[in-house]
């Protein structure tokens, strides 16, 4: 893993007049990674947590959403396979109840 330069506070990016986006692009180029945005990283982070079955309530609070519904609507749209799996799990539970 590449050692990243840090600020004296231990951060990767300086709070430098809203230049974090350009700093991110420079870092990605140094690492040979595809261009992305901070919002893209946020989406990836949330989707990764969601795919690992981290609670939606926790993810919602971590993202700073005022409502769990915001998180649910947005990330279930990003991950339809997860929604389908949850639908199948719910149907299976209901089916087990009828036995």
From TrEMBL:
Coiled-coil region list: none
The name this protein goes by in its record: Integrase
InterPro entries from the UniProt entry: DNA_brk_join_enz, Integrase-like_cat_sf, Integrase_catalytic
Keywords of this entry: DNA recombination
Superkingdom, natural source: Bacteria
GO molecular-function terms, A-Z: DNA binding
GO BP terms: DNA integration; DNA recombination
SUPFAM superfamilies from the UniProt entry: DNA breaking-rejoining enzymes
Domain Tyr recombinase intervals: 23-75
Any one Pfam family match given in the protein's UniProt record, by short name: Phage_integrase
């Amino acid at each position: 893993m590449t050692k990243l330069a840090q600020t004296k506070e231990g951060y990767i990016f300086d709070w430098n007049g809203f230049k974090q986006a350009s700093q991110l692009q420079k870092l990605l180029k140094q690492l040979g990674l595809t261009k992305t945005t901070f919002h893209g990283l946020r989406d990836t982070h949330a989707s990764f947590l969601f795919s690992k079955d981290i609670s939606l309530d926790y993810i919602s609070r971590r993202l700073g959403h005022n409502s769990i519904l915001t998180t649910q609507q947005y990330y279930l749209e990003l991950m339809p396979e997860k929604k389908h799996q949850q639908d199948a799990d719910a149907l299976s539970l209901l089916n087990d109840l009828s036995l």
